[in-house]
Amino acid sequence: MEEQIAIRLNAFAAFRGKHDKAVLSRLAAEAEDLAKQLTGSPLGPSNSISNQSPESLDALCELLAESYLNAGESLPFQADRDRAQILAATAIKRLATLRYLEERPLEQNLIIPAHILLRRSSWRTRLV
After folding, report:
1. Is the pTM of the predicted complex or chain greater than 0.90?
2. Which residues are CB-neighbours of 95 under 8 A, at least 6 positions away?
3. Could you give the C-alpha distances from 33 to 5, 6, 29, 39, 87, in angstroms and in order?
4. Cβ atoms of 70 and 88 closer than 8 Å
5. Cα–Cα distance between 54 and 67 in angstroms, integer?
6. Cα atoms found within 13 Å of the Cα of residue 3, Cβ hemisphere only
7. Tens digit of pLDDT for each residue in 65-87?
8. Residue 50 has what pLDDT?
9. Quick one: residue 44, left, alpha or beta (phi over 0 = left, psi -120 to 50 = alpha)?
């Protein structure tokens, strides 16, 4: 699921402003790293992480965070539970960042040149 999240984060970044692109690209790189780590060293039995794949990026991130939390409570070895809880914290931070970026209007992601802003402010003063 981390690989799917990385792909979707990169796709979402393509439609956002410069700042959001950087944040989303960083989150995608983090997800790619976690996917590689989990491929090399899986987190307990394969059934501890859900294989569902919701359509929305938000829902996928939420499902993965929930899966990590569940694994953190149910894995038999303490080291695996600790690792799952660290992954859950990472997934929750990612989800919170994504929701924050999704709630911001797209206009806040666009850089408006200063000369346009100055024109707009002068228009407002004339209209008042």
Report:
1. no
2. 58, 61, 62, 65
3. 12, 9, 6, 10, 12
4. no
5. 13
6. 6
7. 999 999 999 999 999 999 999 99
8. 53
9. left
